[in-house]
């Protein structure tokens, strides 16, 4: 209950942090084969290099497509871009037609006949099937951005030469093409801080909740074992109510859940920076963190007790308990972000206790909120706890165990 959740949080955080670094810092190997070698194609190669996303591997102009595909199968690179012959001619002629149409629309040229623009550029992008759709779309966007830059340059040059009958100065071209308005990225927060959340801030709370709820395997099995071994019967002979023993069991496992959370949070804050992972920044409202952790732990314990009471065998308890937690994690936003779920799944999202636990933790860790700010996430958890405790009492009463 301690080693496995710690390993899970460590591995998931490391993997996701590596993905973030791959997108933001590291470069992806990309094979470039330019069969055109004219000016526009050379500009495209330069633009792709300047995106900062790729580590280009320049191939000879006479490289065969079969060789490129074979090298990709060997994982020399997962992406390859092929620029065929005639690319520069086609992009230049298209830019000239666009410029001509623009000038004719303002009656700046005598020929006012609009010409059809053929925007189909013969660029081929090969990708290895191992690349996921979202990652491939990011790469495609970067290549499209480089291609758009080359197109814009050609159109600007054509317009300028048509109006002034001379070549556009490099400084003016740079001002027109590269004059981008900067975008300030500011994460919203309750405490007006502008700290950018890292992989640890996202993953540690999520997998701490996952660890808490996996108590169902240990606690649920314990309850089933007591029923099968006759411990319930022996406890009924004692001068006390079995609910007292049940409450004692819940308090013990609640303590275990709190120790799990404390251990994982401590490792995230102190160990992660030592091993090269981003440090977990704990919320300023430590009282709110403790209370939220207590409620999440109590919800996990209540669920485990309920599963144990209604299960007939340990195998049934372990199988149903483990699979149900994975399902709750999937629909609750731990495995797939809740904002990325289809609309048909949104009603099920609110039925997952892990979703409300995650919302409460994220309100503290990511948004910098306090206990009052996450109250609306805590309230459904309290309702679920009351419901599961009553359901447990009903199950024990129906089976004449109390």
Write up what this structure looks like.
This protein is mostly helical and 402 residues long. It has two domains: 27-178, D-Maltodextrin-Binding Protein, domain 2 (3-Layer(aba) Sandwich); 199-398, no CATH class. The chain has 15 helices and four strands. It has helices spanning 3-24, 39-50, 65-73, 87-105, 133-164, 170-178, 199-213, 215-229, 231-236, 242-271, 286-310, 314-332, 346-349, 353-365, 375-398; strands at 28-34, 54-59, 79-83, 124-127. Strands 2-1-3-4 form a four-stranded mixed beta sheet, sandwiched between helices. The longest helix has 32 residues, at 133-164. It is elongated and about 105 Å long.
Key traits:
single chain, 402 residues, mainly alpha, D-Maltodextrin-Binding Protein, domain 2, 2 domains, 15 helices, 4 strands, elongated
Brief sketch in words of this structure:
The protein is mostly helical.
Shape label: elongated
CA distance, first residue to last residue: 29 Å
Instruction: Write down how many β-strands occur, each being a DSSP E stretch of 2 or more residues.
Output: 4
How much of the residues is beta strand, in percent?
5-15%
How would you characterize the largest beta sheet? Answer: 4 strands, mixed
Rounded Rg: 31 Å
**Quaternary form:** single chain
Helix content: 55-70%
Average pLDDT score: 82
Task: Tell me the series of helices and strands, N- to C-terminal.
Answer: HEHEHEHEHHHHHHHHHHH
Helix tally equals 15
List low-confidence stretches: none
Structural class by SSE content: mainly alpha
């Amino acid at each position: 209950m301690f080693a496995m959740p710690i390993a899970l949080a460590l591995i998931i955080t490391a993997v996701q942090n590596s993905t973030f670094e791959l997108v933001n810092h590291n470069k992806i190997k990309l094979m470039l084969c330019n069969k055109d070698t004219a000016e526009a194609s050379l500009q495209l190669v330069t633009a792709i290099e300047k995106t900062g996303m790729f580590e280009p591997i320049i191939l000879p102009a006479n490289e065969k497509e079969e060789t490129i595909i074979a090298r990709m199968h060997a994982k020399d690179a997962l992406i390859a871009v092929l620029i065929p012959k005639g690319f520069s001619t086609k992009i230049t002629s298209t830019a000239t037609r666009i410029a001509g149409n623009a000038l004719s629309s303002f009656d700046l040229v005598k020929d006012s006949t609009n010409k059809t623009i053929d925007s189909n550029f013969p660029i081929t992008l090969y990708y290895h099937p191992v690349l996921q759709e979202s990652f491939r779309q990011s790469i495609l966007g970067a290549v499209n951005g480089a291609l758009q830059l080359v197109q814009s340059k050609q159109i600007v040059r054509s317009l300028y030469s048509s109006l002034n009958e001379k070549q556009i100065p490099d400084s003016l071209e740079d001002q027109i093409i590269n004059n981008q308005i900067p975008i300030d990225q500011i994460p919203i927060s309750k405490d007006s801080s502008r700290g950018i959340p890292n992989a640890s801030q996202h993953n540690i709370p999520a997998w701490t909740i996952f660890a808490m709820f996996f108590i169902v395997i240990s606690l649920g099995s314990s309850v089933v074992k007591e029923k099968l071994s006759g411990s319930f019967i022996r406890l009924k002979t004692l001068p006390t109510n079995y609910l007292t023993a049940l409450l004692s069991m819940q308090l013990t496992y609640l303590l275990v859940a709190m120790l799990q959370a404390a251990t994982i949070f401590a490792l995230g804050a102190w160990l992660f920076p030592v091993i090269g992972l981003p440090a977990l920044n704990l919320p300023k409202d430590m009282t709110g963190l403790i209370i939220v952790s207590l409620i999440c732990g109590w919800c996990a314990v209540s669920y485990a007790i309920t599963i144990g009471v209604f299960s007939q065998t340990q195998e049934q308890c372990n199988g149903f308990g483990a699979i149900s937690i994975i399902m709750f994690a999937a629909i609750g936003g731990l495995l797939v972000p809740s904002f990325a779920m289809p609309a048909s799944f949104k009603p099920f999202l609110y039925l997952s206790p892990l979703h409300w636990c995650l919302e409460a933790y994220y309100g503290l860790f990511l948004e910098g909120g306090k206990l009052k700010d996450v109250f609306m996430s805590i309230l459904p958890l309290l309702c679920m706890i009351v419901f599961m405790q009553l359901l447990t009492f009903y199950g024990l009463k129906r089976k004449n165990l109390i």
